[in-house]
């Protein structure tokens, strides 16, 4: 496995083109990321590599990821960050 991103890179990667994603991802990095297992942290990084329209659909409940690990991470974030 590759090395995990540091917090500054994660913060930067959470800055998206959509406010709806920013208000979910940025607080999660600050408040929930450290509690993740290493495997979940890698999944979170993979989630950040996904396209914004896909992320928006998953977080807003308009669709689900075909990858069960990514969908599980979406669920963790939605349950952790109350907007």
Reconstruct the topology from this structure.
Layout: H1 7-13, H2 19-31, H3 38-48, H4 52-60, H5 68-80
Structure description:
The chain is an all-alpha fold. It is 64% helix and 0% strand. It has five helices and no strands. The chain has helices at residues 7-13, 19-31, 38-48, 52-60, 68-80. Helix 3 (38-48) crosses helix 5 (68-80). The chain is globular, with a radius of gyration of 12 Å. It starts with 6 loop residues before the first helix and ends with a helix. The model has no long low-confidence stretch (mean pLDDT 93).
Radius of gyration of CA atoms, rounded to a whole number: 12 Å
Proportion of residues in extended strands: under 5%
Shape: globular
- The beta-strand count equals 0
How many helices? The count is 5
Q: How are helices and strands ordered from N to C? A: HHHHH
Average pLDDT level: 93
How much helix is in the residues?
Answer: 55-70%
* Terminal-residue CA separation: 33 Å
Poorly predicted runs: none
Largest sheet at a glance?
Answer: none
State the oligomer: single chain
Secondary structure class reads mainly alpha
